[in-house]
Specification:
The complex is a heterodimer.
Chain A (H helix, E strand, L loop, with lengths): L1 H13 L1 H20 L3 H30 L1 H8 L5 H31 L3 H27 L3 H29 L6 H10 L1 H13 L6 H11 L2 H27 L4
Helix pairs in contact in A: 1-5, 2-3, 2-5, 3-5, 3-6, 3-7, 3-9, 5-6, 5-11, 6-7, 6-9, 6-11, 8-10, 9-11
Chain B lengths: L1 E10 L2 E11 L4 E5 L6 H8 L7 E6 L2 E2 L10 E4 L11 H11 L9 H5 L15 H13 L5 E5 L7 H16 L3 E5 L12 E6 L2 E7 H8 L4 H13 L1
Parallel strand pairs in B: 3-8, 3-9, 6-7, 7-8
Antiparallel strand pairs in B: 1-2, 1-4, 4-5, 9-10
The chains are: A mainly alpha, B alpha/beta.
């Protein structure tokens, strides 16, 4: 397992795109903190950038990487290696490489400018988001042999979770604004990993007051340590479930 | 050594293998012959568990291969169309496979040298010609001195010289009492190589007998003619 993961990581690092990604993240982070005097504002700007770019790059890069590794996978399957090991190694390699890029690009400036709990939460949620979208990408790549369909499916998933989902939530909020919808809203938000990440960071920078009564409810539910644990638990499920489904599919795949 | 019991495989609605049962033993050199799309490659891939049979089981030395990978340590496989990571060089691919296999005995690099791969070993896999890729596949198949060699269209795309090198190597390994399974359309090449012939058609095994029986039954002394005779008699 270690050997194959090592091959995958060196292979990805040889790819210049991941270096470019690290650089872009670093430029974003450093400029956001240098331009804003108020770190809370800086955190919010950074959050928006992270929640848009990190999932996009993670899902598309990983998806294409999985498709491009089909030869590598075929070669390994004919060797005495468990399929589980092959699939897990590819996933782990992607997770380590992408998170290394994130830690170098975002982690370092955040630790310098926001060296407290908020900074830690940003780094942690960013890494979770990155891993979640790798997991979804890996699943998309096994669902169909057709590369164009697989990548299309990955893009639609990203679009849905980052933009369409929020639109739907907003629509529902307006439709049912006469009813006490705060509690259902919490559940609906908790189902989308990107919303979950956003709420977790927002509560840390204490701007939840700006969100009115819903913000107060969020604070009440997500602000506690139990809420934090549940949120991380939900994000872990977003990592584990897509990966396990893809693993099960890969074990029965004909090559 | 390898036993297939009632193997069935469907790809969607097409039945690729219909109830194939087979017994392959050490020391045999078996030619797997049949028209295109008769299920030869699927059967080979099932033995390597690259394709999971819909029904039936495959035994390796009496043990079911499902969930087992150690048995692949005994198999050298040369695919019909070798697909390798494109941005790796020949040397990197060979080293990677050496690295992944925990193999302590001396490595058999005869083909590596005989094919002259050393001078070109820094070329990327994506830039290789079909023939050179085949040479890499063949080298990998023989590298770990496996007890079983499964060669899917080994000489397709090889130049006559390289094909002769490979043929000599196959004969050499046969003398060591290994089990060798070859598929080929070039029946002339199989003369003096085989001990057994398997003829497949539409996912079924039509014929599985020794070369002597085949020659005796058809009154021929060449595999190509014997098979042609046989085909004619089947069609009638």
């Amino acid at each position: 397992m270690k050997k194959i993961t090592g091959f995958v990581i060196t292979d990805i690092l040889k790819n210049k795109i991941i270096l470019f990604y690290t650089l872009i993240l670093a430029v974003f982070s450093w400029s956001v903190f240098s331009l804003e005097d108020n770190t809370a504002k800086g955190v919010l700007s950074l959050l928006n950038v992270i929640l848009l770019t990190v999932p996009l790059v993670s899902i598309i890069f990983s998806n294409i990487y999985m498709y491009n590794s089909s030869e590598f996978i075929e070669l390994l399957v004919s060797q005495p290696i468990q399929r589980k090991t092959i699939w897990s190694s590819l996933f782990t390699g992607l997770v380590i490489a992408m998170n290394m890029a994130y830690l170098l690009g975002v982690g370092i400036p955040v630790l310098i400018f926001v060296p407290d709990m908020t900074g830690l939460i940003i780094i942690l949620t960013g890494m979770m988001i990155s891993t979640i979208f790798i997991s979804i990408a890996v699943l998309c790549s096994i669902l169909t042999r057709d590369k164009a369909r697989g990548i299309g499916f990955a893009i639609i998933t990203w679009l849905f979770l980052t933009l369409i989902y929020d639109g739907l939530v907003l629509f529902l909020m307006f439709q049912f604004s006469d009813y006490p919808i705060e509690k259902p809203m919490v559940i609906v938000s908790a189902l989308n990993p990107i919303d979950l990440a956003r709420i977790m960071v927002l509560l840390q920078v204490d701007v939840s007051a700006l969100m009115g009564y819903t913000g107060a409810i969020f604070k009440q539910i997500f602000g506690t340590s139990l809420g934090l644990i549940v949120s991380f638990g939900l994000m872990m499920l977003w990592i584990i479930i897509p990966f396990l489904i893809s693993l099960k599919k890969f074990k029965n795949k004909d090559l | 050594m390898i036993e297939l019991i009632n193997i069935k495989k469907n790809f969607g609605k097409t039945e690729v293998l219909k109830n194939v049962s087979l017994m392959l033993d050490a020391g045999q050199c078996i030619g797997l012959i049949g028209p295109n799309a008769c299920g030869k490659t699927t059967m080979i891939k099932a033995i390597l568990s690259m394709v999971i049979p819909s029904e039936g089981k495959i035994l390796f030395n009496g043990n079911n291969i499902i969930g087992d990978v150690a048995y692949k340590n005994h198999i050298g496989y040369m695919p019909q169309i070798g697909r390798y990571p494109e941005n790796m060089s020949i040397r990197q691919v060979v080293n990677m496979i050496k690295n992944i296999r925990k193999y302590n005995s001396p490595i058999d690099e005869e083909l590596w040298h005989a094919f002259g791969l050393d001078p070109v070993s820094d070329k990327k896999m994506s830039t290789l010609s079909g023939g050179t890729t085949q040479k890499v596949s063949a080298t990998l198949a023989f590298l770990f001195n496996p007890d079983i060699l499964i060669l899917d269209e080994p000489t397709a795309g090889l130049d006559p010289l390289a094909a002769e090198v490979l043929r000599d190597k196959i004969i050499k390994e046969r003398e060591k009492g290994k089990l060798i399974l070859i598929t080929s359309h070039l029946l002339n090449e199989l003369d003096d190589l085989l001990t057994h012939v398997i003829f497949m058609q539409d996912g079924e095994i039509i014929l599985h007998e020794t070369i002597e029986d085949l020659y005796a039954g058809t009154g021929e002394t060449k595999i190509s003619k014997a098979i042609n005779n046989l085909l004619k008699s089947i069609r009638k």
